[in-house]
Amino acid sequence: MKKYFLFLFILIILISCDVRRKDKIADDLETQKVLALKDTTTVQIIDSAYNFGKVTDGEKVEYSYRFKNTGTKPLVIIDASASCGCTVPQKPEKPILSGEIGFIKIVFDSKGRVGEAHKTITIMSNANPEFPQLALTGEVEAKK
Question: Cystine design at 131: which of 9, 105, 123, 141 (Cβ 3.0–4.6 Å)?
Fold first, then answer.
């Protein structure tokens, strides 16, 4: 019986540690958002749309959208998300300094996506006006 209570006690401690870690991650993201919105900058989008043409079902498409910080403050990309789980954006981890060019890399997995593809990537940053949505289009053909 004592072993059962000891096991239960240890399990509760482990679960509570994980909850606190998730809260800290959420708090860090909120802090980043507040700090980024305080010091706004401007951005020039070099590539806002990419058409990958035709690919065969199962191929992966990689592309890097370019943008330039045209403001006087560092550009902080807080979050990058796609309209579909088949498209994974990768944001720069470091701020883009004034005058520098940055990249948002995406990987589109065409497996099971036969037909016309139209995906959007939404960027959250300290740019004012807001970062426009990025577009990825093309056609996925069935394997022969």
Answer: 123
Q: Which helix (H) or strand (E) holds 98?
A: none
* Same structural domain, 19 and 55: no
Structure confidence at residue 144 as a pLDDT band (50, 70, 90): confident
Cα-to-chain-centroid distance, residue 122? 8
Q: What is the pLDDT of residues 72-85, one digit of tens each?
A: 999 999 999 999 89
pLDDT digits (tens, 9 = 90+) for 100-121: 999 999 999 999 999 999 999 9
Tell me which residue range forms the domain holding 50: 43-141
Asked whether residue 81 falls in the same domain as residue 52, the answer is yes
Say how far apart CA 4 and CA 36 lie, in whole Å: 49
The residues, ordered by sequence, that sit 6+ positions from 55 with a Cβ below 8 Å of its Cβ are: 61, 110, 138, 139, 140, 141
Length of the chain: 144
For residues 25 and 19, give the distance between their C-alpha atoms in angstroms, rounded to a whole number: 10
